[in-house]
Design goal:
Blueprint: H1 2-13, H2 35-107, H3 114-119, H4 135-148, H5 182-195
Length: 197
């Protein structure tokens, strides 16, 4: 058996010959057929490759700088965008406070509680595109709100007032006014309890 293994190894290591041989192109059409022409072409390609490697080496630091500047601009732009967003939020908050104050001021004469007025209104509707407050629109909306919800209005001065309760009135057992001092009340209860014995 060892002999068979050697023969198979020899067969496996021998290169196999292709059954067909490649066709050789005529010398005029193949630039690599002439060794001298092929060498000149190779040297020409090497010079071009060296020239491009040199240019790439020169441009690489510039490309890095451009990338760094782009990254710096991007981070600067992001920072400025965040600052702009924060400034816009502050401006909106100030506008909202100004509109609330204007609504309260205009509602103070007509509403029992001026804070109720801005609770029922959409404050964004009263800020114009230029940022000015539309006071005429606020007056109109306040009037419509009082029509819809008249219970929010201030009571008229000539309207009858409801009477205030008088705590001295009512039954106190013997018609006398009860003392407000807890010690006196307790003493009275104790006296009545002792009298009843």
């Amino acid at each position: 058996m060892p002999e068979n293994e050697e023969t198979t190894e020899q067969v496996a290591t021998e290169p196999q010959q292709p059954e067909t041989t490649p066709e050789v192109e005529p010398a005029g059409t193949d630039p690599w057929a002439d060794p001298e022409a092929a060498r000149k072409e190779i040297e020409k390609l090497r010079r071009e490759a060296a020239k491009y490697r040199t240019k790439a080496g020169e441009l690489e630091p510039l490309a890095k700088k451009a990338q760094e500047l782009e990254d710096a601009q991007k981070s600067e732009q992001e920072r400025l965008t965040e600052q702009l967003r924060a400034a816009e939020e502050r401006a909106i908050a100030v506008q909202q406070r100004a509109v609330r104050a204007e609504v309260r001021a205009l509602a103070a004469d007509q509403f029992a509680d001026p804070d109720d007025a801005h609770a029922f209104l959409s404050l964004d509707a009263f800020v114009g595109e230029d940022g000015d407050i539309d006071t005429d629109g606020i007056r109109k909306e306040l009037g419509e709100l009082l029509k819809r919800k008249p219970h929010l209005a201030k009571p008229a001065d000539n309207s009858p007032r409801s009477p205030r309760p008088d705590r001295t009135q009512g039954s106190s057992g013997n018609g006398q006014r009860s003392p407000s001092d807890p010690g006196e009340v307790f003493a009275g209860i104790m006296n009545q309890a002792l009298k009843g014995r």
